[in-house]
């Protein structure tokens, strides 16, 4: 800031000072006029000179005092933008101090948002890499099956060949769904449609959808409900994806258990808080040290190292979706005996659209 800009910013104060000086001289003149004493021009000159001299030194002192602060502002404005040089220090007035604090808060908020976006980007990159690596397995198996079919080695057992092909196709479909919902999660508010939903009907349709998978893995699904019709308010598409993840996890880890006859129970029950859906299996369970981390992104734990198909994203996405829907999601497990996952539909929970309407 040069001296011209400095004076222009204080033009109103300078005009007020000049008017005030004129009024003072006028009052003195009127006072002396009633006393029949003239006001000499030399006295007027000295009064104006002393006042302007005092004003000059005050302005010079104020300019020198504030020049470093304005110089930093000009340097940031005209120079190359730098992330670390956004801090401005050396405030000498209350207004500049407030501006400095506001800029620091904005800078801190910007750093937090930048860190969050970078973390999301890194998480997305990591997820894509693991997803691609996981998808290569069924693609390779399908390619091998097709080569065997072309060579005629599968002609004597076409049913088994088709079953294997269907298994790998289901893995591909499951992986594509996970990638799709992970991409949609960032735009959740644009893809959210709450409505009254029949949970019993949805769970029955999902069990029917996975009927072949249940049969193939020798697992018996059992649906139990206190009522024939249970209606909750939720987004049917999002909550359906959550139940898909929970059921496929139960099937996957139950199929590895050392039991001939295994059951996956889906139980609906109600209490003072609302309706709850508990999905329990008789699978390998989760080690105690891993239970508290099952909702972390990419966490697979001991089971993930034992089962190469684990991505560590299924329960993470399910938790993120339930949190945004206002539903609860909890996991309890006993290693070697099975796992219970409970989805809670709270009666007084605010769904995502309610929270946004309040903000608006």
TrEMBL record:
Against CDD domains, the record matches this protein to:
HisKA (cd00082)
- What are the coiled-coil residue ranges? none
State a single Gene Ontology molecular function. Answer: ATP binding
Q: Transmembrane stretches, by residue range?
A: 12-31, 43-64
Q: Name one GO cellular component term.
A: plasma membrane
Q: Which UniProt keywords apply?
A: ATP-binding, Cell membrane, Kinase, Membrane, Nucleotide-binding, Phosphoprotein, Transferase, Transmembrane, Transmembrane helix, Two-component regulatory system
Domain of life of the native organism: Bacteria
Q: Which Pfam families match?
A: HATPase_c
Tell me the SMART domains matching this sequence: HATPase_c, HisKA
Write out the annotated subcellular location.
Cell membrane
Q: Where is the Histidine kinase domain?
A: 130-349
UniProt GO BP: cellular response to phosphate starvation
The reaction(s) annotated as catalysed by this protein in its Swiss-Prot or TrEMBL entry are: ATP + protein L-histidine = ADP + protein N-phospho-L-histidine
**Signal peptide residues on this chain, from the entry's feature table:** none
Q: Enzyme group, top EC level?
A: transferase
- What is the topology of this protein in the membrane according to its UniProt annotation? Multi-pass membrane protein
The principal localisation class reads membrane
What EC number(s) is this enzyme filed under?
2.7.13.3
Q: What is this protein called?
A: histidine kinase
Organism for this UniProt entry: Aneurinibacillus migulanus
Show the taxonomic lineage. Answer: Bacteria, Bacillati, Bacillota, Bacilli, Bacillales
